[in-house]
Amino acid sequence: MWRIKIENRAVRSYKLSFLTGIVSVFLGVIFTGIIFALWGVNPLFAFYKIFSGSFGSVYGWQETITKAIPLILISSGLSMAFVAGLWNIGAEGQMLLGAIPATYIALKLGCCLPAGIVIPLMFIAGFVGGALAAGIAAVLKEKFRINEVISTLMFNYIIAELVQYLVYGPWKGKGQWGFPYTDNFPSSATLSVLGNTRIHYQTLIIAVLAAVIVYILMKKTRFGYDAKVVGANPSAARYAGINFFRNSVLIMLISGGLAGIAGVGEVAGIHKHLTYPWTISAGYGFTAIIVAALAKNNPLVCLLISVFFSGILVGGDTIQTSLQMPSSTINIFNGIILFFAIAGDYFLTHSVRIVKNG
Amino acid sequence: MIQSLELRNISKRFGAVVANENINLGISSGEILGLLGENGAGKSTLMKILFGIYSPDNGGIFVNGKHIKISSPADSIKIGIGMVHQHFMLVSNHTVAENIALGLSDIPFFFPQAKIRNKINEFNNKYGFDVNPDAYIWQLSAGEQQRVEIIKVLIRGAELLIMDEPTSVLTPSEVSALFNALKKFVSAGGLVAFISHKLDEIMDITDKVVVLRRGRVTGQVDTGDTTKEELARMIFDRDVALSVPFRDSICGSSVLEVVNLNVFGDMGVEACRNLSFSVRENEIFGIAGVAGNGQKELIETITGLREPASGSIFIKGKDITNKSPDIINASGVAHIPEERMKFGVVSSLSVCENAALKDQNTHMRFRGVFIDYGKIKELAERIVKEYSVSAPSVESIMGNLSGGNIQKFITGRELLAEPSLIVAAHPTYGVDVGTTEFIRKKLIEKRDTGSAVLLVSEDLEELFQLCNRIAVMFRGRFMGVIDHQHIDMDKIALWMTGVSGN
User: Fold this and answer.
1) Per-residue burial over A207-217, b = 16 or more CB atoms within 10 Å of its CB, e = otherwise
2) Residue B186 and residue B260 in one domain
């Protein structure tokens, strides 16, 4: 008789976490392939289209990097929150609440002050806006035991409605032919791009810096250590005298703040005005959850995985035009990868072997 | 109808541990049987056998003289046995009626609420329960919840009630209400098995008493023919063997000072009542008592995990009342917690990372904001070496170490921080003999180098071996404090069961 033997693993292995990541992506490819086949499309051809669309040309790479910017920012912030056991599902809304005050500054001050002042102000306002959205959820959690999954998720809708109210109502642009956009930002309030691309490099630099800083914060400092203990065993954290409230709120502030900066990058770098919430974010707040999960909450790994997922997003646009498949097919792919990535965590802490009885 | 119920020659072992051996006892209709004994004496195991949760290795259960087989709680309920657990098993977001209906088979399809309500009111009238069928469980006090549990059992037709330490969460007035209800129940022909380690209650309510110690019956008497003193002698071992003799020490100035401390427990019952005591340098001060008499709450309050209702706590003259655990840690208080896996370590982190858990260690190991992993590793290696923690490496995951090694690790981490006060809660509970001796030696070592030690334990041998003074805690009060020279087993046994007297 054969049976399955499950044991706890003695030591964490980085090789293994890499392997589970690869396997989850691979299984994602297989299951999505089945869906392509059911749709009547050769899966190999579909994947060729997706990846050649994003990684197969200079233009593809430009778009991929452009879309990786918000993913890097948001996933770095989320990885912090996840380590501390704070399930921030509200990066979507935090991003928008970053875009709103930045827009206000762009429209009020952009006319009369130089870019060197306006742009930093917009980023600061964006950070504060995003931090506020997440910080409220943290305070609600620590003071009133309101589950942060619910509150952050609900804030997404509230803030999206707020953006819609602004662009349809008081902030609707005079020169936008009736479209629900704000007026375009003046040039001193827009981000410069690399050459003919859409890569707003200022945000890219901030994003990469943020990933590195979050990495150092979480791996090398007292603050990150405390967060890890709070996330892994709240009772032990209390016993050790770690200040829960301060730790959780700070982490959520940074996490939301980085999402807010991503929002500034999108409105000031891509759209140049505030517009529909679903135009500002192509689901970055949710995709970043998968990025952080696959990166095992390591912000440096988030850098690489953000580029990969950004490629999938760009590839999704390609299959819509070339294969007439809905671009949301990509969401299935992402969902399946997340599913296996989370399931794979089990194998990081347990070894499962098939052994002979006797 | 159950006229009589007998357990004959019941034995039960768990591996090498004998939980019950050759136990004989009987109850008849109209009787309340008291089951006395320390924690771990085998009372709960015996009742779980009766209720069908465990099956005995030997022996049998006889109802009205006839041998019957009980292989599950469903069987015992059918026979008419009902168990009221010590920890309530109620759904707190549901109403009383809904909880009682849960799992009940003979509920009519139409107007089920009406039937349940009528039944509840019937029991209310019969036993003076006064339970509102439409109240939510979370609105009820511990005593009211217990009445719901009793109704749950009665509505299923129980004739024999097993009450597992029913008074541990009740206020005195709730206790007397419960006793009245139980008396009414038996006068109508019911049977009650009443588990307790409180002598006053046993004397009050029972008709006969069976005393268990280490899985064996050490006494069986009619309550009317015995005294508390006699029962106390049956509960506790007369001759506690000391493997290592006590070594005296000269105590210095006071380190911990507790003044008029009042603390509430989780259920809102007063856990500590006006406690005042001090622990001095070079002294081990022991707190004896059966678990659940306020020891846990006292320790949580001293270490900053629980807020006191009133009173003050001083460490070397510094007021630490209501301060957070990190400030208390920094004042030189080490804490070996009762639930070591829940509080003492983060089991998913490495041994190394766990070495840095407490502030009194970490404040010298973090350079500004950055962690000095080299130093943490040094500390972890020192703990592992000096406290002979057996771990593959300091990078191993904490949770994979054995319980004894985790306890040695926690002890090492706490004691190496050079604390002025060590608060140790059941430091050798559930660890092997070798580790037990090791931890005790280390505590004595620390005492000899000037630390004050507050030791809470249920193990009298441990307390006798280590403590300069022993206080006995019962229902949140000290029944008495005794010096090592004047240790009197009879006195301590009586105090532990709530009997004062000099």
Assistant:
1) bbebbeebbeb
2) no
Chain A partners of B337 at a C-beta cutoff of 8 Å?
239
CATH number at residue B467: 3.40.50.300
Any idea of the CA torsion for B68, B73, B75, B80, to the nearest 10 degrees? 80
CB contact under 8 A, A241 and B395: no
CB B131 within 8 A of CB B148: yes
User: Between residues 334 and 353 of chain B, which touch chain A (CB distance below 8 Å)?
Assistant: 335, 337, 339, 342-350, 353
Residues on chain A touching B334 (C-beta within 8 angstroms):
none
- Quick: pLDDT tens for A9-56: 766 677 877 888 888 888 888 988 898 888 888 889 888 888 888 898
Q: Does A223 touch chain B (CB under 8 A)?
A: yes
Would you state the pLDDT for residue B443?
Answer: 95
Contacts of B323 in chain A (CB under 8 A): none
Q: How confident is the model at residue B247 (pLDDT cuts 50, 70, 90)?
A: confident
B339, part of any domain: no
Alpha carbon distances (Å) from A49 to A33, A88, B113: 13, 33, 63
The reply to whether B205 and B62 lie within a common domain is: yes
Q: Is residue B345 part of a domain?
A: no
Residues 6+ apart with CB under 8 A from B222: B207, B208, B209
Domain end among B203, B235, B267: B235
Q: How far is B221 from chain A (nearest CA, A)?
A: 46
Cβ atoms of B450 and B281 closer than 8 Å = yes
Q: Give me the residues paired with residue B216 across strands.
A: B213
What value of ipTM does the predicted structure carry?
0.81
**What are the boundaries of each domain within chain A?**
69-296
The whole domain housing B368 covers 352-418
Residue B277, in any domain of the structure: yes
Size of interface A-B (CB pairs under 8 A): 83
Q: Is B375 on the interface with A (CB under 8 A)?
A: no
Say if A228 is an interface residue toward chain B (CB within 8 Å): yes
Phi-psi region of B36 (alpha: psi -120 to 50; beta: other; left: phi over 0): beta
Element (H, E) at B447: helix B433-448
Please count the CA atoms within 13 angstroms of the CA of A134 that sit on its side-chain side. Answer: 36
Cβ atoms < 10 Å from Cβ of A202:
20
List, for residues B268-306, the tens digit of each pLDDT value.
778 999 999 999 999 999 999 887 889 999 999 999 999
Question: Which tokens sit at B457?
Answer: 């334990």
Between A222 and B237, whose confidence is greater?
Answer: A222
Smallest CA–CA distance from B364 into chain A, residue: A222
Residues of chain A contacting B348 with CB distance shorter than 8 Å: 232-233, 349
Contact B344/A239, CB-based, under 8 Å?
yes
Q: Which residues of B touch A14 (CB under 8 A)?
A: none
Residues B94 and B198 in one domain: yes
Is there a single domain that holds both residue B82 and residue B113? yes
Reported residue count of chain B is 502
Nearest-angstrom CA–CA distance, A288 and A268: 21
Q: Structural domain tally of chain B? A: 3
> Hey, which residues 232-251 in chain A have their CB within 8 Å of chain B?
232-233, 235-236, 238-243
Residue B179 CB contacts under 8 Å (≥ 6 apart), including other chains: B201, B204, B205
Q: Cβ of B414 under 8 Å from any chain A Cβ?
A: no
Q: Which residue has tokens 């409605």?
A: A161
Q: Residue B33 falls within a domain, yes or no?
A: yes
Contact state of B359 with A239 under an 8 Å Cβ cutoff: no
What residues contact B404, with CB distance under 8 A and at least 6 apart?
B431, B432, B435
Q: How far is A141 from chain B (nearest CA, A)?
A: 19
| Residue from A16, A233, A245, A351 to probe the interface with B (highest B Cβ count within 10 Å) | A233
Could you tell me the pTM of the whole model?
0.77
